[in-house]
């Protein structure tokens, strides 16, 4: 019993099977299956044609505004919305060429989402290894999270693309620092900040990591100098050059990962992270999956790399600087009044959302991803069915996981400090490093059949879960428009409470319908978030209802599209509905509020007819 419990690692049974390069029938079938799944995932990205919900419709309404002129411009719309400008400028140009139909505006996100696969592949190949890069791209393209935001008219696909490009720029700066590489990093980080403000949390996390490399470098160098002396003393016949060279693999006859560089000399290949001088994960994992860097092409990053990396982030701040006055104005007057700050449990929830959310397939995928993440962070394959776990973690998975989780921790902390809300879609800012972790984790699996099975099941589950999510109705705006076409007539008035339902309805309701939002009695196409909570708290619901009744007159009907589940509208919509009910008792519900599981943006439609 004791022998089994303490069996040393070097006595593990030999591998039953190995992942290698030799082509076989099963390998060709596996490649074909994965290819079909990836192709299907790309096609699904271009199939969403449902009615746009609030965020999508708001994006289009802002992006179609003119860039200059005497009226309301795109810049005015951004100040009222609280967003940075880059995505809206890209969407503005896209709409100018292709129009603003549902399929047209979503195709932009689909193209950006698909295009992100290439820089993601390059980044994974440089930071991890070539085999992990292929797995990472497969898991990305079939990811339910990526699939959904590849079909939404928002900036989240652009965030993934820019994060991958920024990662490539950072890797270049750390490996071969130069003025040119710093400029590339500055442009990447500046564009990230100009795409979504949550990208600032990612940049802050990366900055902390770079500062840590600089401050901990002397300690690591001293530590490994002591270790080298100890190894030299323990092995007097060991060549003297190895004590001063790159950090070697752990001692003992543990076999390396099948397919890795296990020839003589491979144990002393340069490694990354805290175990190497400089601690930057830009080369292949020691003793892990096969790495395209096993030949030593890329050495440990130069000492000035972290300094140049920080200079690149400072350069990104300079790129962002012209927008700073608008940023501070938005910070003071817009914010996120629609939601409350999250607690730290939201971090684990984010990992569940990346896997597909609280569905059966999503939970299956989360089960697989949890194992892959653990293997990517701390796993080493001795071959076959076995994975060894180093509780200290291994590079580069340990650093990638720190960047992903650290960004989420910073986001929650900042939300608590300034009162900003959490939204799972915002976590796209931390998605790329997590993808690298799970891609690496898959390559730690040494058994060929298990590796293929895990990747195929994860890709299939992700595609099915993502397709289901993509096809779900996102707003009842289309259904409401059909009801109004049948029951309403020119001269009728519709109130929208809360105003967040307005942008979607503005795209679908009959053009002759008089539509106003509560409490501003403004057109419904855009939500003005400036001083939002204060405005709603001081609004007079009875006066708004009376205004609609007066405009409709005794010959026309008043409709109310409403939901009582929106923050800051808990009482206002009830007051408006009550005032309409008192004035016109002959009221009925002409459209039921949809179930959240079937439609994301759901609300009811009530009719108040004249007596």
Total strands: 9
The computed structural class is alpha/beta
Global outline: elongated
Determine the fraction of residues in helical runs and give it as a percent range. 40-55%
Write out the strand line-up for the largest beta sheet, numbering strands in chain order. 5-4-6-9-7
Unreliable residue stretches = 1-18, 238-300
Q: Mind summarizing the main beta sheet?
A: 5 strands, mixed
Quickly describe the structure:
The protein is an alpha/beta fold and 611 residues long.
Explain how this protein is built:
- With about 600 residues, this protein is of the alpha/beta class.
- It folds into 2 domains: about 50-215 and about 305-470, no CATH class; about 475-610, Rossmann fold (3-Layer(aba) Sandwich).
- The protein has 25 helices and 9 strands.
- The chain has helices at about 1-5, 25-45, 55-65, 75-80, 85-100, 100-115, 115-125, 130-140, 145-150, 155-175, 180-195, 200-235, 240-245, 305-320, 325-335, 345-355, 360-380, 395-420, 430-445, 450-470, 475-485, 500-505, 530-535, 540-550, 570-585; strands at about 380-385, 385-390, 475, 495, 515, 560, 585-590, 600, 605-610.
- The strands form 3 sheets. It has a 5-stranded mixed β-sheet with strand order 5-4-6-9-7.
- β4, α22 (about 500-505) and β5 form a beta-alpha-beta unit.
- α2 packs parallel to α20 (about 450-470) and α8 crosses α19.
- The longest helix is centred in the middle third of the chain and has 36 residues, at about 200-235.
- The protein is elongated, with a radius of gyration of 28 Å.
């Amino acid at each position: 019993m004791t022998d089994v419990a303490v069996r040393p690692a070097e006595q593990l049974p030999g591998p039953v099977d190995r992942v290698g390069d030799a082509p076989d029938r099963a390998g060709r079938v596996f490649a074909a299956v994965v290819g079909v799944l990836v192709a299907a995932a790309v096609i699904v990205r271009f199939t969403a044609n449902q009615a746009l919900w609030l965020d999508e419709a708001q994006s289009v309404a802002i992006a179609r505004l003119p860039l200059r002129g005497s009226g309301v411009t795109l810049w005015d719309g951004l100040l009222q919305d609280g967003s940075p400008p880059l995505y809206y400028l890209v969407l503005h140009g896209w709409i100018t060429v292709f129009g603003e139909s549902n399929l047209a505006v979503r195709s932009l996100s689909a193209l950006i989402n698909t295009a992100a696969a290439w820089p993601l592949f390059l980044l994974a190949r440089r930071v991890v290894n070539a085999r992990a890069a292929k797995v990472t791209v497969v898991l990305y393209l079939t990811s339910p999270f990526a699939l959904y935001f590849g079909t939404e008219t928002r900036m989240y696909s652009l965030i993934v693309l820019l994060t991958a490009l920024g990662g490539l720029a950072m890797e270049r700066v750390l490996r071969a620092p130069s003025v040119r590489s710093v400029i590339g990093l500055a442009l990447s980080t500046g564009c990230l900040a100009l795409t979504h403000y949550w990208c600032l949390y990612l940049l802050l996390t990366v900055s902390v990591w770079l500062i840590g490399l600089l401050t901990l470098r002397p300690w690591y160098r001293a530590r490994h100098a002591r270790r080298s002396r100890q190894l030299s003393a323990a092995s007097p016949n060991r060549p003297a050059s190895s004590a001063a060279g790159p950090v070697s693999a752990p001692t003992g006859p543990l076999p390396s990962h099948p397919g890795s560089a296990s020839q003589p000399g491979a144990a002393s290949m340069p490694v990354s992270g805290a175990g190497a001088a400089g601690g930057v994960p830009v080369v292949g994992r020691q003793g892990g999956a096969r790495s395209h860097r096993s030949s030593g092409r890329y050495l440990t990053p130069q000492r000035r790399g972290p300094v140049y990396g920080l200079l690149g982030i400072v350069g990104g701040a300079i790129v962002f600087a012209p927008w700073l006055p608008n940023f501070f104005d938005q910070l003071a007057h817009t914010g996120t009044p629609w939601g409350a700050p999250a607690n730290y449990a939201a971090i684990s929830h984010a990992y569940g959302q990346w896997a597909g959310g609280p569905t059966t397939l999503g939970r299956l995928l989360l089960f697989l991803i949890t194992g892959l993440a653990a293997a990517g962070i701390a796993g080493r394959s001795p071959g076959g069915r076995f994975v060894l776990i180093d509780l200290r973690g291994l590079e580069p998975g340990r650093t990638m996981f720190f960047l992903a989780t650290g960004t989420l921790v910073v986001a929650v902390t900042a939300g608590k400090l300034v009162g900003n809300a959490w939204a799972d879609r915002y976590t796209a800012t931390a998605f790329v490093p997590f993808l690298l972790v799970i891609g690496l984790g898959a390559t730690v699996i040494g058994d060929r059949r298990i590796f293929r099975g895990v990747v195929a099941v994860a890709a299939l589950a992700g595609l099915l879960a993502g397709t289901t999510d993509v096809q779900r109705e996102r707003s009842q705006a289309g259904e409401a428009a059909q009801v109004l076409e049948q029951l309403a007539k020119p001269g009728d008035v519709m109130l929208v409470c809360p105003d967040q339902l307005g942008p979607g309805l503005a795209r679908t309701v009959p053009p002759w319908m008089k539509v106003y939002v509560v409490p501003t009695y403004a057109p419904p196409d855009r939500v003005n978030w400036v001083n939002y909570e204060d405005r709603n708290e001081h609004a007079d619901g009875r006066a708004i209802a009376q205004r609609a009744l007066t405009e409709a007159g005794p010959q026309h009907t008043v409709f109310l599209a409403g939901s009582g589940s929106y923050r800051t509208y808990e009482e206002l919509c009830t007051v408006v509905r009550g005032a309409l009910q008192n004035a016109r008792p002959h009221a009925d519900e002409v459209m039921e509020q949809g179930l959240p599981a079937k439609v994301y943006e759901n609300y009811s439609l009530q009719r108040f007819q004249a007596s």
